[in-house]
């Protein structure tokens, strides 16, 4: 049994505290998403697009298949997202330096701005909400940050072994090809 199967199996026997934590995290994600839409209505990017941009910001020059594995999305879903982000000039495609048929992705200046704007919106939402909490509750929340960071790393270690930057096996052995372009008549 691999780590992912073990995780699925363990979910059946989940501790009530684990279930409560999962429920609170899900509620927090939904509240953040709702609030971000209210606080930044001009942002027309989907959460999936923003997640891909953020992942690409954390993993520059990634290939589409690497992003698919990191985000646990189907490759065709990543291709659709990348195509829409490329059309909006938020993502740039560049040929691989080692294989001219392969492509790597990078954020454009506009893509970096979109990520910073999303992070800024989320920080502002959390800042306002934290200020509205009782001091003791605010202290409890902020004191939990180191443990939550470790939890993120522990979850990633289970579902993304060898895929995170700097880890052994983090390379992308598969080749990504650029979308074919219609041929132009000579002299055009």
Automatic annotation (TrEMBL):
Please list where the region (Disordered) is annotated.
Answer: 162-188
User: Where would I find the HTH marR-type domain in this sequence?
Assistant: 18-157
> Matching InterPro entries, A to Z?
HTH-type_Bedaq_tolerance, HTH_MarR-typ, WH-like_DNA-bd_sf, WH_DNA-bd_sf
User: Which domain of life does the protein's organism represent?
Assistant: Bacteria
Q: Name one Pfam family in it.
A: MarR_2
PANTHER family in the cross-refs = CONSERVED PROTEIN, HTH-TYPE TRANSCRIPTIONAL REGULATOR RV0880
Entry protein name: HTH marR-type domain-containing protein
Lineage, opening ranks: Bacteria, Bacillati, Actinomycetota, Actinomycetes, Micrococcales
């Amino acid at each position: 049994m691999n780590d992912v199967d073990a995780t699925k199996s363990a979910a059946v026997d989940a501790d009530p505290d684990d279930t409560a934590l999962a429920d609170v995290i899900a509620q927090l994600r939904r509240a953040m998403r709702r609030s971000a839409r209210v606080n930044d209505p001009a942002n027309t990017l989907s959460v999936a697009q923003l997640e891909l941009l953020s992942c690409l910001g954390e993993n520059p020059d990634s290939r589409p298949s690497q992003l698919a594995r990191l985000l646990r999305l189907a490759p065709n879903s990543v291709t659709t997202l990348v195509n829409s982000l490329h059309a909006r000039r938020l993502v740039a495609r560049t040929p691989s330096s080692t294989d001219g048929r392969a492509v790597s992705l990078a954020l454009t200046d506009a893509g970096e701005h979109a990520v910073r704007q999303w992070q800024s919106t989320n920080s502002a939402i959390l800042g306002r909400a934290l200020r509205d909490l009782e001091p003791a509750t605010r202290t409890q929340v902020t004191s939990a940050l180191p443990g939550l960071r470790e939890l993120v790393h522990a979850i990633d270690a289970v579902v993304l072994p060898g895929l995170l930057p700097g880890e052994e096996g983090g390379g992308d052995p598969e080749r990504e090809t650029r979308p074919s372009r219609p041929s132009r008549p000579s002299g055009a």
